[in-house]
Design goal:
Elements (H helix, E strand, L loop, with lengths): L1 H12 L3 E5 L5 E4 L12 E3 L6
Antiparallel strand pairs: 1-2, 1-3
Length: 51
Amino acid sequence: MGLSDKIMNVLTMGATFEYECDDCGTEFESGTPECPECESENVDELEPATA
């Protein structure tokens, strides 16, 4: 599947950000702002957690 290929590319690149989808509400970590659930690009970047 194309989506799993995208996920593997993101994992091997290592540059990920946290996002929340405005359409379905899913929170996810990714290197690209595209929701893995509904494939929307209508997402907000979340602030990274501080230690």
